[in-house]
Amino acid sequence: MALGNPATGKILCVDNAETLNFLRESYWKSKIDDSPFSEITLRFKNLPPDRAQIFQAKLNDYYFECGCGMGSIFLALTILLLIILPFVSGVSYFPPSWKGVAAGAGIIIGSALIGKLSGLARSYLKLIHVISQLRSSLRASGD
Q1: 6-11, long-range: CB < 8 A, 24+ apart
Q2: How far is CA 121 from CA 24, 27, 45, 83, 86, in A?
Q3: I need a surface site. Which of 57, 105, 114, 137 has the fewest CB within 10 A?
Q4: pLDDT in tens, the chain (143 residues)
């Protein structure tokens, strides 16, 4: 594992199985403490450059995913549901009470949090899958 620090930030150079394990193991810690590097590059001798570029792009996408996309989808769907619910159920929420407003805000914030965590979990599973594919590709090429 070689870490570099060019002007754009730190780069993690993945060149062996130990570094691949580090990526998998450091994923959740990087979401809490912020990642110690800003880019992942692959340096395997027997991996064709076009394949390396594809794997590198996927590793960067999945490792640095923040989960905000999924969180915003959950948030939008929850707001839509809370808007539609009174019309479908026939129950009027007007005038709203403070308890109702607080409950709605809690539901919205909770759904956004659940969405973010779902997005992070999805990215983690995809990262594990890409690492597995990369290992298989390296075994096939003899690296």
Answers
A1: 8/38, 8/39, 9/37, 9/38, 9/39, 10/36, 10/37, 10/38, 10/39, 11/37, 11/38, 11/39, 11/40, 11/41
A2: 12, 10, 31, 28, 33
A3: 105
A4: 333 334 346 888 999 989 999 999 999 988 888 777 889 999 998 889 999 999 999 999 999 999 999 999 999 999 999 989 888 887 777 777 899 889 999 999 999 999 999 999 999 999 999 999 999 999 887 65
The whole-angstrom distance between residue 35's C-alpha and the CA centroid of its chain comes to: 12
Residue tagged 């159920």 (tokens): 89
Task: Say if strands 11-14 and 39-42 run parallel, antiparallel, or are unpaired.
Answer: parallel
Region of 124 (left: φ > 0; alpha: ψ -120 to 50; beta: rest) is alpha
Tell me how far apart the 2 most distant CA atoms of the chain are, in Å: 70
pTM of the model: 0.83
User: Exposed (0-12), middle (13-18) or buried (19+): which is 5, by Cβ within 10 Å?
Assistant: exposed
Residue 96: DSSP 8-state: P
